[in-house]
Amino acid sequence: MNLESPKVSLDKSSEYLFNALTDVKNFEKLMPDNIAKFEVIDENCFEFGLKGMPEIKLVKKEAIPNSKIVLGAASSKLPFTLIANITEIEANKTDVQLSFDGEFNPMMAMMIKGPIGKFIETLASNMHKL
What SUPFAM superfamilies does this protein's entry cite (predicted)? Predict the structure, then answer.
C-alpha cells in the first residue's frame, strides 16, 4: 500500500528542512491534535500514539542530505516506511512531500488506508511549524 501527502511549499531552505526533520524530536510539532503520546527514545527513534490507535515506534533508516529522510517501523509486525522527499525550488523555497509505503494484507490495508492517509496529510500540512 502506497500513500502520498499533498506537496507542501515552504519558505525555508532544503538544508533547514532536512536538519529539522533529521532531529526526531521535531516530529512532535507535526503530530495531529489527537496525539496521546510522544516520546523520543534516542536520536534516531521516537514512539507516538494517537487516541484509539496502537502506539508506533519509528526509527530513522536513511538520510540523504537535503533531499530525503526515511523512517521505518521498529516492529516487523507492521512493516512500513515513511519517507520525506525534500525538493529545493529556489534558495529559500522548498517542496516537501511525504509518502507512506507498507506491506499489509488487503483487510488491514482497507482498515488503515483512511486514517494513515489523513495522518500523513496532517504531518505535511504542519511542516510550517518547523
Answer: Bet v1-like
> Alpha-carbon distance 87 to 91, whole Å?
11
**Is residue 94 within 8 Å of 84, Cβ to Cβ?**
no
Model pTM? Answer: 0.94
Q: Do residues 81 and 2 touch, judged by C-beta distance below 8 A?
A: no
What would the pLDDT profile of 57-79 be if each residue is shown by its tens digit?
Answer: 999 999 999 999 999 999 877 78
Task: Provide the pLDDT confidence category of residue 129 given band limits of 50, 70 and 90.
Answer: very high
Which residue's C-alpha cell is 500514539? 49
Q: State the residue range of the domain holding 124.
A: 2-21+60-129
Asked whether the CA dihedral 18, 44, 23, 118 is positive or negative, the reply is: positive
Structural domain contains residue 97: yes
